[in-house]
Structure formats: structure tokens, C-alpha cells
Design a protein that fits this description.
Layout: E1 38-43, E2 46-48, E3 51-55, E4 61-65, H1 74-77, E5 78-82, E6 90-94, E7 99-104, E8 113-118, E9 134-140, H2 153-169, E10 188-190, H3 191-207, H4 212-228, E11 232-233, E12 236-237, E13 240-242, E14 248-249, E15 258-259, H5 260-276, H6 282-297, E16 315-316, H7 335-343, H8 351-358, E17 369-370, E18 373-374, E19 400-401, H9 407-424, E20 441-444, E21 447-450, H10 462-466, H11 473-486, H12 488-491, E22 492-493, E23 496-497, E24 501-502, E25 507-508, H13 515-529, H14 532-538, H15 541-549, E26 553-554
Parallel strand pairs: 3-9
Antiparallel strand pairs: 1-2, 1-4, 4-7, 5-8, 6-7, 8-9, 10-13, 11-12, 13-14, 15-16, 17-18, 19-26, 20-21, 22-23, 24-25
Protein name: Glycoamylase-like domain-containing protein
Organism: Alistipes communis
InterPro entries: Cu-Rt/internalin_Ig-like (IPR014755), Glycoamylase-like_cons_dom (IPR019282), SbsA_Ig (IPR032812)
């Protein structure tokens, strides 16, 4: 386990109990003749008779006895109990002489405690009962063998981008071409996640995962569907859409209309595509024109409650109006909404809406230090990491500043605090450390939550560290290697890494991917490697005008 210091067992030692074994866990008596006793236990190369620590979850458990056994008594008297006292499904393989090999059907969980029981009903072939029963404590670590062959870091980054991109290409809803909200969503597509997917398509075309023509055609299918079939509200789209009919699928009882944040994330992607597909041919010219028509139709200023307030509102419904009543205020993932609203050539907002609404007159500032790192904006400890990702897939924080923050400092320091918290691991969760970190919104064993240092449920989401690659390249690369090589048999799938996992409980979100978690992986790794998405979005003349309107400074060359 050298090189992985966080693999040291994190769960407290279990009290060794008799559990009906007719004695304690030590045996000082010497068996006479055919009298039966346990002579040795070997687990994953370790030998002993009481405690086994840092055991690989797939380690073989071998018990040797002083005499041949009565095979009929083996299964009922040699077994494993988990930390809750439940019997672990396993088979006892008896060699017909003095050895039993215990084989858990599904292996053991990582970072878990077990008791290996040799009960007093075990008998020798001669009919002698075992001299004394045993309780052997087992604590697992992690199987640290490589699950896949080693490749160069550059090859690994490309592999992750290409495999993750497949979620938006092969896994897309077939009629609309839009991104399914999650793997199991059927026809339910997501507006913001589709914006991320469109950005991923520009990366895929540039890297040759698909041809430029194929990517252009797919983005055109999405744009045509949005223009001709999807219901819009003052130019904005709902959070969820039926990908076959275009009808709005309510996100909640009162959220059955426009979602301005999701719309912002969508148009971040569409404007990036408009910049990328700059060819003079008919297909690319049409795509640019169609994106422009959608872009100019969004009535951003309407979402100030029709000009009555100096703040943008997240939702509007045709039958419930402003019932959700949720102002979009910083600091969170929604900076991009204000940038786009100010950038609109047809329905822009002014600087005062940004200053009083988003920045709250400066109240979004923080300025305190956490783990010796100053956090310019937002809640203590920074909040979930997607706040440092979603707005910055296209908006380049390097060299970007305004009256409230240097945004490169903001996103880098937010990420460093999240990383430092995981390394510190104040709640003692299994696996947290320098190679296994990242708290953000994701699935958890009993639902979904926005994990952060102040809402830590023991769940790591690969997107958190991987999408932070531009900010913490060394730490993110270490996490990528760990996720792929050490946990790849459980995390890697047809669409890249699964959404989340919990090593304390042994839970893995098997087969599940979520669009808003997969998309940033592709895009932010590319921003780290070449800056392509940043360069495309920041080259947009509307965006440049909007940033200037809001008082942003963009350093040359950033």
C-alpha cells in the first residue's frame, strides 16, 4: 500500500465477541491426537489468528486445521459477518483434508469491517468437536492493482474525453439529438446539459472523434428541434423537455415554464458552436444563422419581472407567472446568465441589474481564509465544485476580473479548498485523500445532493476533480489516474466514469451518468489542454460587448 497513505483503515476496531463460538479468540491449548483446532488463517498473504488489517477486498481466505474435517459441518460453522452482523454470502470450499477456502460471492467491500467466525459446531472427520471457536477480525483496504494497462497521461486524457463524449453522441435522445438528463431518462432531455454536449461536440470534431460535418449536422438537428418543436417562453426554454414532442416536462409543480439558468447554459454552448462552425459552406452558414435566430429571440430583460426589478429571476410559467420567485443571485453557478443577458443584441440588461441583483451590492464577497486559502466570493468553504465549472466552460476566468473578484483566483482557490478539505477528511470517510477527492452535485446512495465541505455525505464524484483540471492540474491528474487505474473496474464504463461512489459503504452508482456531470469533463479537460472552448466563446463579439457592459476587464492573451 506504499504511495497510498489514505488507505490506512478508517473504521474503528470491532470488539471481539464470542458470537456463540464457545470461547475467546486465542487458543493456548495444544491439541492431542485427532483433537480439532484451527492452526492458521491466511488472508491475502497475511497469516495470523486474530486481526487482519488493510486486506484487499478480493483476497482469498484460507483456514488450515490440525485434523481432517467432517464436511457436513463446514458450511454452517465457518462464515463471515459484516459490521452489522449480517451473514456474508460466501461458499466454503473444503479440500477433503485439513483446509477450507472461504470465497465471498461478490468479494468484500473496500474499507469495511468483518468478522470471520469458526463456530463450536465444527467437527473433525473422527467426530471430535473443535477445541475452541474463533472470531477473527478483518478490515479491508482497497485492491490497489492496476485495473487497466498503463498509458501516457496524454493518451489517458484523450481516452477519457472520447469515451465521455459518447454520452452525448451515442447516448443522445434520437429524435431531438439533445442530451438525456441521465442514462435512464428515456425521452427526457436536459436544456443545460445539451449546451454542455454541444460544446463537447466542438471538442470531438477538433480531435477527430467525429467528423466536422457529422458534428455540424448533429448540432443542426438540436437547433432545428429547439426552433420548430420545443416550447419556449419569451425565447427561453424549460429545464426538461420531451425530446420527441418538444413539450415542457415540469421540473416541479410550479416550475413548468422557462428556466433562465438552464437557458444560459444552453446558449453558452450554442454560441461556442456558432464560433466554431465558421465555414462558408451552406451547412455551416445555415447553422450559424439558426443559432443567431434563437439567440436573438431570448428576452433576457423580461426576466427582471418585466423590468420592475433590478435582478434576473430564474423561472417564469405561462400559468403560474413568477410563482417560483427565485432571484438569480451570486455566488453560485449562474454568472454566465448575467454575462449572456448583458450580451444580448436584442434584449439586454444593464450593469445595475448585475451589480444590485447578481452581486447583491457586493454582499456576495467572502474574503475569509479556509485551509490557508482566501476565498474571494461565495459561501464558506466555497460550496460544491460545479460552481467553479458551469459558467466557466466557455467564460475564461484566466485574466478575468471586475469590481468584485479576480475570477481565476476565485475558481482556483475554491478548488484548492475543496481538495484540502478532502485530504483533511474531518469526518473520516473511507478513501478520501490526495488521489481521491472532489465534492460537487451528484447522485448519492439515497438520492441526489450538492456535496460540499459543509454538506459532505462521503460521496466522491469524478467530475469534480476532472472538471477542475485547468485549476489544479497536478491534483486532478492524480485523481484521474486513481479513478481509472485503481477503481476502473468499478467506475469506468461505455460513457466514461460513472457519476459517483462512496468507498465507506461500498456504493457505486453503477451504469449511471448525468449530462451536467459528463459534459464539463470533456470541455474542461480541453480547456486545460488547448483552451479551445474558452477561445471560441470569448471570441464572440456579443460576449465581448456584454462583458464590457458589466465592467469586466479581460487581460490580453487570456
Amino acid at each position: 500500500m506504499k504511495g497510498f497513505p489514505f488507505f490506512k483503515p478508517l473504521l474503528p476496531a470491532l470488539v471481539l465477541l464470542g458470537v456463540g463460538c464457545g470461547g475467546d479468540s486465542t487458543d493456548d491449548r495444544t491439541p492431542a491426537g485427532d483433537q480439532l483446532a484451527l492452526s492458521s488463517v491466511t488472508i491475502g498473504g497475511q497469516s495470523g489468528l486474530s486481526d487482519f488489517d488493510d486486506v484487499s477486498p478480493d483476497a482469498e481466505i484460507v483456514l488450515d486445521f490440525t485434523a481432517a474435517l467432517d464436511a457436513a459441518t463446514v458450511e454452517a460453522n465457518i462464515y463471515l459477518l459484516d459490521a452489522g452482523g449480517a451473514k456474508v454470502d460466501a461458499s466454503d470450499v473444503y479440500d477433503g483434508a485439513k483446509r477450507v477456502t472461504l470465497k465471498p460471492s461478490a468479494g468484500l467491500n473496500a474499507y469495511a469491517s468483518y468478522r470471520l467466525i469458526v463456530d463450536s459446531g465444527l467437527k473433525s472427520a473422527a467426530g471430535e468437536a473443535i477445541l475452541t471457536g474463533k472470531v477473527i477480525r478483518i478490515r479491508t483496504g482497497l485492491d490497489t492493482s492496476d485495473k487497466f494497462p498503463q498509458i501516457s497521461d496524454e493518451e489517458l486524457l484523450t481516452k477519457v474525453q472520447q469515451q465521455t463524449f459518447r454520452y452525448f453522441w451515442e447516448g443522445a435522445e434520437s429524435t431531438s439529438g439533445m442530451a438525456r438528463e441521465r442514462t435512464s431518462s428515456g425521452a427526457t432531455v436536459t436544456t443545460g446539459g445539451t449546451g454542455f454536449g454541444v460544446m463537447a461536440m466542438t471538442v470531438a470534431a477538433e480531435r477527430g472523434f467525429v467528423t466536422r460535418s457529422e458534428a455540424c449536422q448533429r448540432v443542426q438537428r438540436i437547433v432545428t428541434f429547439l426552433a420548430e418543436r420545443a416550447t419556449s417562453y419569451h425565447g427561453a426554454f424549460s429545464h426538461w423537455i420531451d425530446g420527441q414532442t418538444g413539450q415542457t416536462l415540469p421540473f416541479s409543480a410550479d416550475d413548468n415554464g422557462a428556466d433562465l439558468v438552464e437557458t444560459g447554459l444552453l446558449f453558452q454552448g450554442l454560441l461556442t458552436a456558432r464560433a466554431y462552425f465558421d465555414g462558408a459552406d451552406a451547412a455551416e452558414s445555415k447553422l450559424r444563422a439558426d443559432i443567431t435566430a434563437l439567440w436573438e429571440a431570448v428576452e433576457w430583460d423580461f426576466f427582471t419581472k418585466e423590468g420592475t426589478e433590478k435582478v434576473l429571476y430564474w423561472h417564469w410559467s405561462p400559468d403560474k407567472g413568477w410563482a417560483m420567485n427565485m432571484p438569480i443571485q451570486g455566488w453560485n453557478e449562474a454568472l454566465i446568465v448575467y454575462v449572456l443577458a448583458a450580451s444580448s443584441p436584442t434584449h439586454p440588461i444593464g450593469r445595475e441589474v448585475y451589480a444590485e441583483g447578481w452581486a447583491r451590492g457586493g454582499a456576495m464577497r467572502n474574503g475569509k481564509s479556509f485551509y490557508d486559502t482566501v476565498l474571494p466570493l461565495g459561501e464558506d468553504y466555497g460550496g460544491p465544485l460545479f460552481w467553479a465549472h458551469y459558467s466557466f466552460l466557455g467564460l475564461n476566468p484566466r485574466g478575468l476580473s471586475d469590481a468584485y473578484a479576480d475570477y481565476w483566483e476565485q475558481v482556483c482557490n475554491h478548488t484548492r479548498i475543496n481538495y484540502a478539505y478532502c485530504v483533511d477528511n474531518p469526518k473520516g470517510y473511507a478513501g478520501y485523500g490526495a488521489d481521491c477527492w472532489g465534492l460537487t452535485a451528484s447522485d448519492i446512495p439515497d438520492g441526489y445532493t450538492a456535496s460540499s465541505p459543509t454538506n459532505d455525505r462521503g460521496v466522491i464524484a469524478p467530475t469534480a476533480a476532472l472538471s477542475s483540471m485547468p485549476y489544479t492540474p497536478d491534483e486532478s491528474m492524480a485523481a484521474l489516474r486513481f479513478f481509472y487505474y485503481k477503481l476502473g473496474d468499478k467506475l469506468w464504463s461505455d460513457y466514461g466514469f460513472i457519476d459517483a461512489f462512496d468507498l465507506t459503504s461500498g456504493w457505486f452508482d453503477r451504469g449511471m451518468h448525468i449530462a451536467i456531470d459528463q459534459g464539463p469533463i470533456v470541455v474542461m479537460i480541453e480547456n486545460y489542454r488547448t483552451g479551445l472552448p474558452w477561445n471560441l466563446f470569448m471570441s464572440d463579439k456579443d460576449v465581448q460587448r456584454g462583458l464590457a457592459e458589466l465592467g469586466f476587464t479581460v487581460e490580453a492573451g487570456s
